[in-house]
């Protein structure tokens, strides 16, 4: 869910009507000195403003004209502030809502104001100067065509109905829907909806505008004192967007995600002040129902604004404070316990079901929707009170906070989230052995250390052999050997001693190198090493001695004697001790490497267990989401107090 977002409010000032010009009412009571600021001037003193309002957007569409609102060519656009035409209003207020709807959010746009203030003109407009709906539909299908692909598919449906005298009538159907009109139901997830309402699939903006003209011809309009074709009902035009995306998971196949969103465009009937003797019975009844529903809408807006503006309740006086006194005598005041000094305020009851209009717009006011309100106001002093009431209402609505969220199919969302988690865990387990991970670097470092230790052992062995061979000249080797034998007649031959000592001292090194050779050979950092290099000194020694066959055999048998002679015995012991120390380092590094490999294997097993648990829980969560998605049927009862109380008890 996204962060809570307040309702966007804008005000648009229309030009004077011919009737107002005929009454010599040519001075506007509305001024917009800078963007976002509306000044309401006093009727008696035009130079003094009575109230100041600050909104998100302001549209100055005021200008003298000689004909009706439907003829934009007669507008005289003032130099300051900039004139706001239909395209400016749409781009500023409605186009951002369209972008959010394509992402999966519910959106809603209200047109609220006094009768004849230009609500319908702003919403639909004439063919030569279209309003919000025609422009939004054109951009909608342009965006859908650009985003459609093999993995993403869009479908669009529409509905169009009016609320006349608290009864719902489908404007796209010839059926009346019974004496009480269509019924309102409430879904536990998606909120209120109209049962039996026509939803027509459309493929282009031409289809939408055709159905819009068909529905507009069936709207209830009448001639009133201020408007020749005044809307006598509230109309709600809704576009339903469905986006289907397909994602391919390597271990789960093709997973489809469904996103649904709604665009509600509400054209409210204008409020009217009743004067005795000027309305016939039918117009009077219509005006009463319109004012009643608008009064309920204003009450809902006030309740929601109070819930949003007072998060804490701290209007109590702590009992520990001294009692105030007057003339030496204590004054009776209310005290509260210290625990009630600052308690969270409970959300007050919001009377959505007091009218059909507010019940259907429940999600748009304080619910799951991104909402904008366009307040259309008149420059005439004849509508001063109604204009002030309109500005006060939308100012309160500016503090209402909605909690919009992307509407994704719950089953598809759970499956996608679980598949994403499984993919993340598999990737985490795979990185234990993949290049670039910290574990891979540690393993490579240990393997490189093993290779370096192996090379050091080989180089030291080679250096020792070469140093020993070069240290004794050929003519002194035999004499040295004879003197050592004569001095130690009871000592075993030097060859036997050297063989026994060298085999015993170097056998751990050889065994360790043999044990480590498979792991060393498996690393990519190892470079090939020729075993012939170890025998190179011996080959050079054999080739350098040119003797008879029997002498050559004797020389071959005494090679170890020359390397490990008695005079060099102490030096050989020192070198062997150094090799043993280096061997211990190699063994310790191998032990660390084995611990790292065991730890990685243990983590892989743990990840596999977690993945198994997540996959097994998928079925249970899917079943629970299917149960929550079943609709709950509620009776509307907007006209009956008893029925309304019963429905509230059920909720």
Automatic annotation (TrEMBL):
Cellular component annotations (GO), alphabetically ordered: microtubule
Residue runs in coiled coils: none
Keywords: ATP-binding, Microtubule, Motor protein, Nucleotide-binding
Positions of region (Disordered): 474-502
Residues involved in ATP binding: 113-120
Source species of the chain: Clonorchis sinensis
PROSITE patterns: KINESIN_MOTOR_1, KINESIN_MOTOR_2
Signal peptide start and end residues: none
Single GO MF descriptor: microtubule motor activity
Boundaries of every Kinesin motor domain copy: 6-400
Pfam families on file: Kinesin
PANTHER family: KINESIN-LIKE PROTEIN KIF14, STAR-RELATED LIPID TRANSFER PROTEIN 9
GO biological-process terms attached to the record: microtubule-based movement
Protein name per its UniProtKB record: Kinesin-like protein
Family annotation (SMART domains): KISc (SM00129)
Similarity field: Belongs to the TRAFAC class myosin-kinesin ATPase superfamily. Kinesin family.
Gene3D superfamilies for the chain: Kinesin motor domain
């Amino acid at each position: 869910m996204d962060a809570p977002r307040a309702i966007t409010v804008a005000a648009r000032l229309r030009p004077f009507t011919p009737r107002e010009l005929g009454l010599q009412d040519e001075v506007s009571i509305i001024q917009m000195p800078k963007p976002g600021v509306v000044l309401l001037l006093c009727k008696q003193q035009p130079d003094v403003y009575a109230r100041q309002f600050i909104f998100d957007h302001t549209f100055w569409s005021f200008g003298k004209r000689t004909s009706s609102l439907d003829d934009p060519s007669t507008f005289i656009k003032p130099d300051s502030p900039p004139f706001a035409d239909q395209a400016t209003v749409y781009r500023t207020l409605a186009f951002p809502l369209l972008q959010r709807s394509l992402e999966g959010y519910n959106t809603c746009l209200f047109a609220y104001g006094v009768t004849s203030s230009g609500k319908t003109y702003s919403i639909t407009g004439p063919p030569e100067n279209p309003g919000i709906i025609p422009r939004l539909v054109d951009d909608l299908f342009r965006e859908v065509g650009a985003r459609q692909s093999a993995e993403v598919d869009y479908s669009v449906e529409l509905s169009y109905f009016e609320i006349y005298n608290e009864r719902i009538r489908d404007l796209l159907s010839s059926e009346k829907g019974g004496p009480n009109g269509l019924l309102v139901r409430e879904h536990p997830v998606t909120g209120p909806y109209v049962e039996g309402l026509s939803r027509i699939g459309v493929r282009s903006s031409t289809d939408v505008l055709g159905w819009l003209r068909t529905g507009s011809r069936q709207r209830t309009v009448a001639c009133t004192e201020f408007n020749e074709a005044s809307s006598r009902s509230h109309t709600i035009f809704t576009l339903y967007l469905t986006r289907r995306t397909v994602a391919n998971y390597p271990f789960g196949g093709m997973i489809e995600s469904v996103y649904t969103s709604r665009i509600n465009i509400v054209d409210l009937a204008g409020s009217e002040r009743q004067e005795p003797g000027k309305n016939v019975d039918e117009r009077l009844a219509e005006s009463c129902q319109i004012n009643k529903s608008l009064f309920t809408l204003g009450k809902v807006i006030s309740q929601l604004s109070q819930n949003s503006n007072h998060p804490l309740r701290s209007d109590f006086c702590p009992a520990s404070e001294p009692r105030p006194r007057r003339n030496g005598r204590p004054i009776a005041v209310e005290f509260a316990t210290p625990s009630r000094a600052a308690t969270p305020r409970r959300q007050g009851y919001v009377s959505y079901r007091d009218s059909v209009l507010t019940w259907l717009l429940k999600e748009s006011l304080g619910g799951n929707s991104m909402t904008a309100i366009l307040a259309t106001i008149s420059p005439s002093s004849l509508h001063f009170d109604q204009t002030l009431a309109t500005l006060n209402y939308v100012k309160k609505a500016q503090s209402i906070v909605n909690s919009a969220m992307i509407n994704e199919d719950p089953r598809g969302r759970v499956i996608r989230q679980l598949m994403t988690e499984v993919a993340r865990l598999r990737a985490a387990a795979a990185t234990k052995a993949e290049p670039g991970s910290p574990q891979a670097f540690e393993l490579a470092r240990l393997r490189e250390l093993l290779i370096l230790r192996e090379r050091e052992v080989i180089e030291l062995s080679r250096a020792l052999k070469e140093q020993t061979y070069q240290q004794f000249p050929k003519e002194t080797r035999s004499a040295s050997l004879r003197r050592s034998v004569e001095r130690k007649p009871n000592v075993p031959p030097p060859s036997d001693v050297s063989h026994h000592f060298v085999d015993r001292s170097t056998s751990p090194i050889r065994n360790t190198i043999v044990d480590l050779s498979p792991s060393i050979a498996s690393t990519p950092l190892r470079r090939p090493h020729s075993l012939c290099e170890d025998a190179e000194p011996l080959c050079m020694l054999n080739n350098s001695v040119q003797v008879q066959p029997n002498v050559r055999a004797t020389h071959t048998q005494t090679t170890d004697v020359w390397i490990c002679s008695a005079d060099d015995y102490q030096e050989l012991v020192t070198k062997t001790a150094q090799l043993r120390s280096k061997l211990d380092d190699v063994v310790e590094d191998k032990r660390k490497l084995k611990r790292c490999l065991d730890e990685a294997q243990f983590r892989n097993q743990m990840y596999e267990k977690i993945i198994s648990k997540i996959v097994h829980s998928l079925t249970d969560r899917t079943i629970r989401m299917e149960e929550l998605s079943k609709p709950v049927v509620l009776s509307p009862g907007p006209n009956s107090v008893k029925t309304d109380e019963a429905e509230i008890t059920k909720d």
